[in-house]
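hey so u asked for the seq, here:
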Amino acid sequence: MSQQEKVDKARRNLVVATGVAGGLASVGVAVPFAASWLPSERAKAAGAPVEADISSLAPGEMQVVEWRGKPVWILRRTKEMLEGIRKSDDKVSDPKSEVPLQPDYAKNEFRSRKEDLVVLEGVCSHLGCSPQMKPLEARAEMGGDWPGGFYCPCHGSKFDLAGRVYKGSPAPVNLSVPPYTFLSETTILIGDDKKGA
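ran it, structure tokens below
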């Protein structure tokens, strides 16, 4: 073998070795890069349904749980609260919940599976702030005819205790009702309405 042939063979080996090393390096970089696009375990868990124990939730009390990174309110309404909802029909923009922001089973007068329990996403439909509950006792602050509801301090949107938006509010639509079901009398599954009833 001549000196030139030895040099050519060494070059070929070097080119092949460099190509193989570059290919392996590309795979080594591409795999973690592609894997970074997959949702993390935390992200998967954030979208998973969550159970809420409502066994100690008394009439007039609200419990907050987190689902998909959002606050979800569970409010056990009193008879007075339900009566306030009935009296709000002429004051709210969408009294019959025509805008589809709730599952079919919550497209009723109280926007819930059971009259006394409402489940709402606690996120204002205007700019995503979190409204505050303002009970009947907040009339001095909210006005003499306030039947109780939710108030968004960011821009002044008002909602009744069924999550229906008041006319004249900056919020364009009602609060959303997430999918949910009752696993038992004391447990609600939020984020899945296919189990239970």
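The first strand starts at residue 50 and ends at 53. Residues 82 and 116 are 8 Å apart (CA to CA).
lmk if thats what u needed
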